[in-house]
Amino acid sequence: MVSISSELLQTWIIGLLWPLTRVLGVIAAAPIFSHSSIPNQVKLGLGIMLTLIIMPTLPPLPQFEIFSFQGLLILVQQLIIGLAIGFSMRLVFSAVELAGQLIGTTMGLGFASFFDPQSQGQSTAVNQFLVLLVMLVFLSLDGHLMIVTAVANSFVSMPISLEGGGINPLQIATWGETIFSVGLTLALPAVAALLITNMALGILTKTAPQLNLFGIGFPVTLSMGFVVLALALPGMLKPIENFIEQGASNMRQVAVPHGSGQSLN
């Protein structure tokens, strides 16, 4: 008869639970993996599968009771590390969402907003279009594999331990600032062209007051917005690729305790 001691059972549980918490934290925050259209059962199954693959490569784990203060502290630490890794790549998608929101609002599509189940807020059609575009670019660059690689390497650079140090919150907050600069950079061509269009419509209204500004202004602004967006899309590809690569670099730097990071600029 095979007997399993409580110490052995606890070793098995913590060997799965602690790395699984970090992996599930990444899945909960990282783009693509955290999409609301993916069932929670699939996310959990993916997390368990990745954890079982990573487990043989893990360094020795600290031996604490599961429900002890140290054990719960390590559990919370792993969740925060996983969320930070996924959040570092999520910043790229947030910047693109901001660019789409600026372009859509300037075009006059602010009224054509709808509920986005992913962000749990209102978004425009241009916003969703750019998000789908960056999602395709992300998958073409094997961004999902970058995330898996980053979380696997994080167990080496930041092992599961109370003495292993923590992430640098100020560094991640600094990366968060780049949402506005990156979003404005992507939206600048369309916003500038639409601003010139609105100025021209304003001059036209002053010279010919009998013209119905609301009758001709909206179709002109909307048409100009689509034309400029179509012309600007090829030029957006390279910056988006650079932002995704920098996001992958930031994910690797999250797992380096108190390291100096770079921004998405």
Could you characterize what this model shows?
- It is a single chain.
- The protein has 265 residues and is mainly alpha-helical.
- The protein has one domain (6-254).
- It is built from seven helices and two strands, in the order H-H-H-E-E-H-H-H-H.
- It has a two-stranded antiparallel ribbon with strand order 1-2.
- The longest helix has 42 residues, at 213-254.
- The N and C termini lie far apart (63 Å).
List keywords for this structure.
265 residues; elongated; 72% helix; mainly alpha
* Structural class by secondary-structure content: mainly alpha
Largest sheet: spatial strand order: 1-2
Name the overall outline: elongated
**Overall helicity:** over 70%
Mean pLDDT: 80
**Main sheet characteristics:** 2 strands, antiparallel
* CA-atom Rg in angstroms: 24 Å
The tally of domains stands at: 1
The end-to-end distance, rounded to whole angstroms, is 63 Å
What is the H/E string? HHHEEHHHH
- Compute the number of strand runs: 2
How much of the sequence lies in strands comes to under 5%
Unreliably modeled segments: 258-265
- How many helices? The count is 7
Write a brief caption for the model.
This protein has seven helices and two strands. With 265 residues, it is mainly alpha-helical.
Element layout with pairings:
Blueprint (H helix, E strand, L loop, with lengths): L5 H24 L10 H15 L14 H39 L6 E3 L4 E3 L1 H16 L2 H15 L11 H39 L5 H42 L11
Antiparallel strand pairs: 1-2
Helix pairs in contact: 1-2, 1-3, 3-4, 3-6, 3-7, 5-7, 6-7
